[in-house]
Every structure is written in C-alpha cells, then in structure tokens.
Amino acid sequence: QVHLVESGGGLVQPGGSLRLSCAASGKIFSIVAMGWYRQAPGKERELVADINSGGGTKYADSVKGRFTISRENAKNTVNLQMNSLKPEDTAVYYCSSRLYTDYNRWSDYWGQGTQVTVSS
Prior knowledge:
seven-stranded mixed β-sheet, four-stranded antiparallel β-sheet, elongated
C-alpha cells in the first residue's frame, strides 16, 4: 500500500553536490520518521541521516557538516542535500520511513535505492 520512490542519484566529481529526494505515497496516516541509509559494496547498510516528526535530526559522523536532511511535509517527501562529496560516499542510498497506516498501526518501508557515485 505504501511506496517510497527515490530520485536524484548520479555520478559527480569529488567536492561536488547532489540532492536526493524520496516521496512516500499510499495509505499514510502519519509519518513518524524518514531517513536515508546507504550500502557500499562489501559493507553493511548504515544510517546516513534521519528526521523525525518533530524535526529532530541525526547524522552519521562521517557526513556531519556536509549533508543536510529536510522534509516537505505536504508532499510526504524527505530530501538529502549532499555537499563536499567524497569517493567514500559512493554507495546505493535507500530511503526509509516509519509511518502509521492507521491511527494504531505502524510499519517500516524502504525504497528501491538510488546509486551515488563520486569519482574523478
């Protein structure tokens, strides 16, 4: 019933910027939190950043000061502005959301992933 669709990935040079977006659609009663994870080849999936219903944010230490997560509540959308990109940021980035589909039921949902490649 709920779908998350990511966009904005691509190939950029070191020091460049990308903006990822993720839109949630379907039967959504309310959103608890939305966030971004990433998985590089041979590595575990890790949290990059998330933002909760009150606007509070968390960031991985490796991206603090470079990435900014934000919401567009009217569109059920979360964005990730990525600046000063490094080759180490290369990964598949996944959008995730914890949301209520009814007043007393919540679940976690995942997008299909979008590739971010930082290379000269």
